[in-house]
Amino acid sequence: MDGRQLARIARPTLEAPWVECQLPGTRPPVVVVQFQPQRYVVRTLVFLDGVSLNDGMTLEAWRLKQPLPLDRFEQAFRSRLWGPVGALLIGVVCALPGLVQFDRTAGLLWAVLAAGGFAVSTGWMLTMIAFTRWLRTRRTWSWRLRRALVLLGVMLGLPALLLLGAQVLYLIEYRS
Asked: Where residue 118 falls among pLDDT bands split at 50, 70, 90?
């Protein structure tokens, strides 16, 4: 204020998204709050005698709305692509080879393979998303273990599922 530093406030992070600092020696009390509701977004609020200068809400009302802390696991699997939109995108990507071949030869087999690729990959991704949401509730487990479980499931689980499906198709073809 007037070229002087009155206080130094810590920068909020996703692990500690709410930081309050009461400026010393101010009457009525002035409280500065910085909070981080999402990655790369930091907001600053100033409260004079417990009332926000920005919107007129009280400090207590803002404390009730403050963002929850996120551990490193929750931060890693928070993007919009780690949800239904991402599952649909994965499904489309996995269906594309079958659709391209169907466009060239128009065989029923290619349409079934494209639909199957879409269904299996989308279903698997939705399963992994549900697994990730379940792991969010296991905050006593280390974030590294939870991340490793998800990555192993995605990297090893889907190829194993596809190999199992290929073996089933081979056995059906071989026995007929």
From this structure: very high
Asked whether residue 83 falls in the same domain as residue 159, the answer is yes
DSSP per-residue codes, 117-145? HHHHHHHHHHHHHHHHHHHHT-TTS-HHH
What pLDDT shows up at residue 176? 64
Q: CA distances (Å), 110 to each of 58, 89, 100, 107, 114, in order?
A: 62, 19, 9, 6, 6
Would the pTM of this model clear 0.85, i.e. be above it?
no
Sign of torsion over alpha carbons 98, 99, 105, 110:
positive
Q: Which domain holds residue 49?
A: 18-69
Q: How many Å separate Cα 33 from the centre of its chain?
A: 25
Asked if 20 and 33 touch (Cβ cutoff 8 Å), the reply is yes
